[in-house]
Amino acid sequence: MSADASPTERRAKPRVGLFVTCLVDLIRPSIGFAAVKLLEDAGCTVDVPVQTCCGQPAYNSGDRATTRDIAEQVIAAFQGYDYVVAPSGSCAGMIKAHYPELFADDPNLLPKAEALADKTFELTSFLVDVLGISKVDAAFSGTVTYHDSCSGLRELGVKTQPRKLLASVEGLTLVEMNDSDVCCGFGGTFAVKYSDISGAIVDAKAKNVEEAHARTLLAGDLGCLMNMAGKLSRDGKTIEVRHVAEVLAGMTDEPPIGAPKLEKGERP
Amino acid sequence: MSARDEILANIRRALGVKGTETIRKQIVAERLERAPKGLIPARGQASGEERLAVFKAQAEASLATVTEVTSPAEVPQSIALFLRSHNLPATLRMGDDLRLKAMPWAETSLEISHGPSAGGDLNAVSHAFGGVAETGTLVMVSGPENPSTLNFLPDNHIIVVSSKDIASDYETVWNRVRFTFGKGGMPRTVNWITGPSRSGDIEQTLLLGAHGPRRLHIVVVRD
Amino acid sequence: MNVHTTSPQFKRNAARALADTQLQKALGNVKQGFIDKRAKAAAKLPEFEALRDSARDIKNHTLENLDLYLEAYEAKVTASGGHVHFARNAEDARDIILSLCREAGAKTVTKGKSMIAEEIEINDHLEKNGITPVETDLGEYIIQLRHELPSHIIAPAVHLNATQVEQDFRRVHKNLDPNRDLSQPVQLLSEARSVLRERFLAADVGITGANFLVAETGTSVIVTNEGNGDLTQILPKTHIVLASIEKLVPTLEDVSQILRVLARSATGQDMSVYTTFSTGPRRASDADGPENYHVVLIDNGRSAMLGSDFQEMLRCIRCGACMNHCPVYHAVGGHAYGWVYPGPMGAVLTPALIGVDKAGHLPNATTFCGRCESVCPVRIPLPKLMRHWREREFERHLAPATFRSGLAFWSFFAKRPALYRLATRAAMVTLGFAGRHRGRFKWLPLAKGWTKYRDFPAPEGETFQARWKRERSRRPA
């Protein structure tokens, strides 16, 4: 081993703290397990410290005090890891782009927030940009189309990484939809507070998804996925919706988002 | 307190300054005096033929038409041909520009009139102060030589520009303006013109000749 | 403060806009046109991103020294024979403009496109005092006929279709032959051109805005494609420039830097057709040009933004790229925002100018998708500034009570991981069981806004953290 090897190279197994995100924790844990599999396959040791949320709902509602309380918890919970990885560009973006700003006037916490920001990554970006992985061991038959979630795309530059990994999935064909980089209209509480506008934006998104003629819609953020899946199912569309990690990990046993969960022998 | 003083006081309070700080005053005075250049795109940074080619390509991209002549003496014939080929009347309005006046207009059958436009002229010719290759822009300065109304009122505007006056970038032309009119001095109006008048205000449909000229024709005199 | 403000009714405005098929059709043009053109123009210029930095830095430097640049600019205008008038607010500005028009004995006033003129509602004021203002930008002219506000800062009539414009022309242009074909945009343009040509030649005063004011030379700069701004200012005897104080830039070099990103960001042109630099009144030897040149410098809330969380908004050069790329603007158009400035820049600026109590919806009605910031030529962090407004609202308890209590309920658990795990575990088991068969809910208590347009995917049942604990504790480390 050369002397100037990076810490990752020197230490056999990077220790990753999984920031599972509150939505994945509550709604679709299988995304979390898919992320764990991808990280472990890539040679990481994965741990899941006790956690709640990154604080983004409070932050975007203008409640800085609550956000700081939550952020302090996150900083403390993830202090001991080499990396923090989230299967979400939105939550990773919150930690990476906004925590330092939140503590800009706090000389005590700012360095800690910055240290956490430096080692926090969105899942596909971590795999590709940090670990240098270019293919995964998975198979998925059929066409998929990929929606670029806003925070991941514009705060973290997640665009080519998921596509690069998807290209290595056996049997998978990626077809691009129009305006894949345009917001789906989720926006957290926006979807409820301004439901009419959110409804119109997701309507446009659903049309683009449909026109791509893919069997499956993928994205890297569960919030966007729930929004788009909910819209597609409301409109009676049969397009399956999944988190990109599920496909990359080859863990697609769980029914798609918003699809019925069937016991063995059960019919819908 | 006057509105002026009140506004300045509010600005100073907001910025936490007094307005008497020597260092700030120096920084501002120096910037105004030196007028440092910013970032100049490489696009127009060429010399000779290459620069002229960029100018032409950019001007045509802005929907102007460009023709070249090898001497000022050829300009009247070239313009007469342009008007004829577009079925336009053989009339032409121009200012007192000496370069234009020296051209052999009598060799054509064009009916020439002089002075600013009051709105009744179909065709006008002006001489540009300069051109800018990076965007195919013409730089016009106001004055009795080339009245500003000629740039806007006629339906068809023809601009003569000398190839040696076509610079790579705007900054080079500003330096010539400063040299001609004195540092900090300006003619009443400097017009940058890049293509003929247009509007996209109705259904985003691009239409030429909104209020200004429907056609912009450039005659480059190679000298 | 303002009779035309409907910002407090944003939600109602938005609902109406979404139901307006004519408007929805017109908004389709925004999505297609502006975005592609900007992307192409930016891609053609390798230095574009660096020029954005340069433009940002120039505006920042000017704002930090605005007092000094204003003084330098004023001195230069005066030296070139022009006059500078300072207006604290809209009322000051209206008084100054009216008295200048009266001094000139004005009956009709032509106007170039100016957002500050909309902001101070100068047209109403002139009309009330017997002076006829005539908008000359084609889009502005059309909306003036309709007594509407612009719905876009660079394409004021973008919410209209050609048939609507035809109806307006037939209603207002009394001499128009009823048999004349006006079905095509080009025919509408030619009609407007001939009507407005008369107005240009007859006007006593021309009022324009200013894209920039140059301190080095005392110059005002306007940027247009039609040439209407030029005819407005060179034909009448008096030219009045209206400009808010943040339009200052130091030098001709600085304005040239910013012009390289303005048109590219706005319309995707490398340069607009007419960029005009005006300095003082006509010179002794000039054959044309205005005899009088006045600049009305308007504060109207800008100095209060300096030194605040919102100072960066004063960099705005009004290109409209933010609204062109905004999914919310695409959905509801500009009028829903309820005042002069729509889209993301309006969502930041409007609360500063008319009060967050009136315009509170605007910085909330956004998904924070960040596309506006990604295209802003002067890199204004628009989402961040919108968030600052939400913080102000939160501090002042302006958010609706139901929303605040919902947030408080959630925050309570988010701050207590142990309780959170217990509570969410039980809740997700219940929800997961209830939604198991269909996989989704068509209706859920407290989520009416969500389920009005989409289903709510059912949770798997067990939380990740519960399952992780169960599975991994069984496994030897």
UniProtKB/TrEMBL annotation, chain A:
Q: Which organism is it from?
A: Microvirga terricola
Protein name according to UniProt: (Fe-S)-binding protein
Q: Which residues form the Cysteine-rich domain?
A: 16-96, 144-228
| Domain of life (superkingdom) | Bacteria
Pfam families for this protein:
CCG (PF02754)
TrEMBL record, chain B:
InterPro entries membership: FTHF_cligase-like_sf, LUD_dom, NagB/RpiA_transferase-like
- Chain segments annotated as coiled-coil in the UniProt record: none
Q: Where is the LUD domain?
A: 126-221
Q: What is the recorded name of this protein?
A: LUD domain-containing protein
Q: What is the species of this protein?
A: Microvirga terricola
The record lists the lineage as: Bacteria, Pseudomonadati, Pseudomonadota, Alphaproteobacteria, Hyphomicrobiales
Automatic annotation (TrEMBL), chain C:
Do you know which PROSITE patterns this protein is assigned to? Answer: 4FE4S_FER_1 (PS00198), 4FE4S_FER_2 (PS51379)
Tell me the keywords, alphabetical order: 4Fe-4S, Electron transport, Iron, Iron-sulfur, Metal-binding, Repeat, Transport
Task: Tell me the ranges covered by the 4Fe-4S ferredoxin-type domain, including all copies.
Answer: 307-337
> Which Pfam family, any one, appears in the UniProt record?
Fer4_8
List the PANTHER family.
LACTATE UTILIZATION PROTEIN B
- Recorded protein name is Iron-sulfur cluster-binding protein
Naturally occurring in which organism (per UniProt): Microvirga terricola
